[in-house]
Amino acid sequence: MVWEPQLPPAELAETRLITAILDGTYPINTSLPAERELAGLLGVTRPTLREALQRLARDGWVDIQHGRSTRVRDYCREGNIAVLGAMARHQAQMPPDFVPNLLQVRTLLAPAYARQAVERAALSVSELTAALAALPDEAAAYAAADWELHHQLTILSGNPVFTLILNGFGDLYLEMGLRYFVRPEVRQHSRGFYAGLLEAARHADPAAAEAHTRQIMLQSQDIWQKIA
Length: 228
Known about the structure:
By secondary structure, the chain is mostly helical.
């Protein structure tokens, strides 16, 4: 197991346990070691371990039952949105299908929040996308700008759940963006997305924003598969 940098004790124990679950040290539906042993393995006190386990139980990583061993849950089926954020932060232990699955979810969500953003705030979407015409033609600039565009669209949609979901994998989004936008043709593809969204916003056409976003997101999935 590879440990994270020094953190507050409970957070340290939580992070180390998530790492151990994701890398298969403690597989799904197996029991964690006894409390005393596990605290020693993690390098924390037993009260700190209990606090960490309560956090993990809350998010769906483990199942704690009095008088029985703590079970590792099937976190993809029994976990909540906090599991998504934790998996995104543990890129070294990320399942191979995690990014493709994440892109599939974005393809489902992005057209909806783009439509709602244009419905509620077409002028703001116009201003947001028009500013992207001046982006430097480099991967880092596009990665940061693309994240900010989607983030702002979720906010402008008026549905905070969109924003919370997107925030759950913000660090991973930026990391993926640096790999995705390294190719000039990919940046050109995204310029087409920004221009089409700008046009839809200027005409206050939510349906056009939704259809254009869906098409681009589907194409982006194909591009990522080729890159990966």
